Amino acid sequence: MRAIWIALGAGIGAPLRFVIDQEVKKLHRSLIPLETLIINTTGSFILGLMLNSHGRWPLLIGTGFAGAFTTWSTFAIEEHHLLKHKHQKKALLYLLLTLALGISAAGLGVWATS
């Protein structure tokens, strides 16, 4: 039964990530991959909200939705792309923003539910 809750959440998280990615790319051209930064920061906040939850919610929303919604692999490829094309300052900015915003958002989510 646990796997079903995870799959249901993932079935919503992955398509939503794709839609947000495409829409942000249409609206805004930025120095760094803003779409992935927004998605991963939001997902970190959602996962933080789930940290103190019980029952099926952590499986559905935390593991399923947030796990499929966030995207470490896309971040890694984008970071590699920036470095490969000699955009070291942009790569460093993207790395630091991703870490700072992700950790802060997760902490804010935990704080909001404490």
Number of domains: 1
Instruction: Write down the secondary-structure element order.
Output: HHHHH
User: Mean pLDDT, rounded to whole units?
Assistant: 96
Coarse structural class = mainly alpha
Rg is 15 Å
Helix content: over 70%
Topology (elements, then pairings):
Layout: H1 2-27, H2 34-50, H3 57-69, H4 72-84, H5 88-112
Please give a handful of descriptors for the protein shown.
114 residues, globular, 5 helices, mainly alpha
Question: Would you write up a description of this structure?
Answer:
- The protein is mainly α and 114 residues long.
- It is 82% helix and 0% strand.
- The protein is globular, with a radius of gyration of 15 Å.
- α1 (2-27) packs antiparallel against α2 and α2 runs parallel beside α5.
- It has helices at 2-27, 34-50, 57-69, 72-84, 88-112.
- The two termini are 28 Å apart.
- It has one domain (2-112).
Concise structural overview:
The chain has 114 residues and is mainly α. The chain is built from five helices and no strands.
